[in-house]
Structures are given as C-alpha cells and as structure tokens.
Amino acid sequence: MIVDCAHYQDGRRSTQDPASIEDAAAASRAGGFVWLGLFEPGIAELKEVREAFGLHELAVEDALTAHRRPKMDNYTGSARLIILRTARYDDEEEEVDFGTISVFLAPTFIMLGWTFAGAGLGRDGFTGAFAGFVVALETLRLLSENRPWTNVVALAAAQEEISYAGAFTAAFKVDPTVAIAIDVTHATDYPGADKKQNDEVSLGSGPVFTRGSSANPVVYERLVAAANSAEINFTVQGSARQTWTDADALVRSGRGPATGIVSIPTRYMHSPNETIAVSDLDACARVLAEFVHQIDNNTDFRP
Length: 303
Hints:
Distance between the termini: 49 Å
Largest sheet: 7 strands, mixed
Number of domains: 2
Number of helices: 9
Structural class: alpha/beta
CATH topology of the largest domain: Aminopeptidase
Helix content: 25-40%
Number of strands: 11
CATH superfamily of the largest domain: Zn peptidases
C-alpha cells in the first residue's frame, strides 16, 4: 500500500496531494527529490516502483526477502538499499515485536517500505527511529545542494531506551563540537493529553526545541535564530532534569559537545495509532540545515 508519494523542490513539497509513481519519477528526473512511503508492499507495487525509478531487480528482490539483521548494499547504477530492524517490547504480552524497514536511497529519491509484527508501533519500535532517520537524511540532502562550511555527520544510535550505549560510543568516536539529538515528543492536541506534563504541542506546528538540562543555551538560541531565518514556526519545551533523549548521553561523552534537542510532534505515543505530520519532518530538516549553514570559523558555542 502506498502511504504517500511526494515531490520536493528546494525543500518544499510541490503538491499537497499524493503524486502518482509515474509523475513522481518524471519530476525527480527533472530536478528535486521524491519521498515515497510503502506499507507492506507487494510484488506488483515494487515492480511498478522498480520500472519507474530504474531500481536494480536484485535490489527489489532483496527488499522482499525477510532479514534477521540490518544490512546495507550498493547496486551498480541503482539506489543504495538499507535494511533496518525495529523492535518494541509489548508489556501486556511480555514479548518483543519485530519489524523491518527497507530503504532505497538515491540522490533524487528516498523510498521506505515497512512491515511489522504486533499491534503497537512504539516510540523506538518505529515512529521515533523512522522520523528521526528521515529528518537526518533530508537535512543531509539539503546540505548537499548548498555545501556548508563545517563537516556534518549523521548517525542512528541504538539502545536509547536502555543505556544510551549507541550515543555514548558514537559521540566518543566522532568527537563533535556540537551535537543535535533528533527525537519525537508528545503532541497534546487531542482529548486526554497531559498539557501540564508535555506543554502545548500541536501536530503540524513545526519542530520542538528543548530548553534546560542537557540543552546548551547557545545551541538553543541558534536553533531559534535558524527557525526565524527560515520563517518556520516552532514550539519550546522545558526540561528541568533529564530529556530522556540521546542528548543526555551526548552532553556527557568525550569533551562534552554543545548539545541541542530537536523533536517531532507525535500524537498517541506508545500506542498503535502514533501519528506524525510530514510537514513537521520537512520543517525540522530545514531548520537543521539552516542551523548548520550559520556555523563558521568564528562560531563559539560557549555560554
């Protein structure tokens, strides 16, 4: 099933309605970027996608194969195939639900096809990992069109809910000057939402910036400045102690990089009905790209 198919030009969606696969492929050849989401795609759907975007036949066959481990393959003259494994612990059933995300990545498009077992998607079982992954990739794509002064590294860290081991080890290896944790946060624009705990956050309201605890004040101010420069709406959340994101590990790793948190509003977190807005993914990526572009050799992140 096609979840959405959209063409982006200069970081903006060309049309609000989903495009056909043929129209999207033609638009990507003329310039811009295509985002295509498929849920539990079948052979017929993937064949149509393969023919429209010129995917390697073996890559499509690989995407249809069940995988027990993550992997990444390059196919000559075609897109890169990335297989991601997702997992969510079901408290009621006392078991782990596993899923798979197959990603075709090329300079002019990204396609995501996902399958999962179990009812709930969960914060880190699907939505959190998926949303942050898309934002990071879109940020890199925007930066590739207009190269920044500084180097940029994007990574997907494991064990955020358990020990922060992925963020600790990756940050130690990369040793960044500044680090941004991309995560999801609770949207509160529905009945029963806890606005006292999670503030006023709406779906479609753009990125959410965190103040306090692990957030470096200079990074926060520069994120706000980037959002204002790009004319993007944003929301601010306070965090008196832990942020419960990888930022809590990043700020304590190595020399302690200047750390910020950019979150995507998510309704019904930790439920089977988790919902995010594609416009928020786009807005987060544009803010991060602008934030990076404003960094030069005179930038000082010391408060």
